[in-house]
Queue: 2 jobs
Job 1
Amino acid sequence: MDGAPEFQQAVRRLLFPSGEEGSEHHVQVIQTVGSSGALHLAGRMIQHDAPAARVWISSPTWENHAALLSSRPEQIGYYRYQPADPDQLCMTTILEDLQAARPGDYVLLHACCHNPTGMDPTLSQWREWAEFCAERGLIPLFDFAYQGFAQSAEQDAELFALFREHSDRLIICNSFSKNMGLYNERTGALTLVFKDADRLAVWHSTLKRMIRSTYSTPPAHGAYIASHIINDPHRYSCWQQELKEMRCDLQRRRAALFAELESSGLMDTLLSYHRQQGMFLCLQLSPPSIEVLREQHGIYLLDTGRICIASLPQEAIPAFCLALGQVVEDTNTLSRKA
């Protein structure tokens, strides 16, 4: 019910590339139906273990987070995720909002490539966040869907060792949908990192009962693919090279888009964050402007303004920015008339 041992070994290697030696924590990996399944299981377990606890998520965040983590809106809290300046995340507002969290509450953190903003804390900011959670008795819950798309698989996992230094317990939900292209295989994991071995055993046992009463066993094929690659040094090295190529492609596309936005005078109008990583970015566009892009220019993005940079061909960037400029100008014209 909790996956093949070789898959569990592979996940541990990815999450803790420097090893677990010297840590007081005990680690249990549970294979799940993608990271969405991991988040859903985590949410169910939190409600079972601590019904009064809230889960705090960033605003903005991936639109499915709240639904996966709780069926009760009152169990979800929000903290503002916004820039201090175009190149720096504002930790002040985050920690101000989390002052309202109570000991035993959970804080959902995007381990890298924040969805949808693409703006991540620096390592020093992660340390500040870890210390804050420890002082306030808050439990870190990580969504780790984009490992390898920010810096490298190893560097993107560095923050877990940092949080282990400060927290008695942390939970990690990771996915192989993006970094191995295993969307349809639904290959993910829920990893429990607890100092209290007895409590870990209780969580593990309860989660297996939840699995048994829902999907019973996780899909095998994707897990075998992931473990086949990660547990073999040569295949792992080849995969790391492919990840680097994907990461560099995302960086090239983003750099080309930013350069075009800058030359068009649209950069500050449309982007709050200038330092970004990963697959997504958010454009500051109103829903009517987004509708105009769809109807008049054949450009489709979410109502939130989120776009997937991987779906934007570099040769289409000038035309894309031209359409953005026209929509912004039309919006400004209407504002002046009003």
Job 2
Amino acid sequence: MKLIKVTKNKNKHFRLKDGRVGSIYNSGYVRINGNDRLYQINKKVKVWYNCETPYGYRWERVLIEKECERMKYLQEFENKNC
């Protein structure tokens, strides 16, 4: 994993072993730029907003607050998938 760019918002972009670009954002997201898509790799949780119906939920991404944890999450993704 090699740092290739830091934006003015302090977002960091890395080149992964397989050539894809992994990005960590100050908002808490970790994303992978594949060949033609941008993937969010943060975990998802089911959030209920209406418990009376079986479909009263939505999916939300778990934001990673600390930058070191986002870096670690991206590194673990690279070790597992690249």
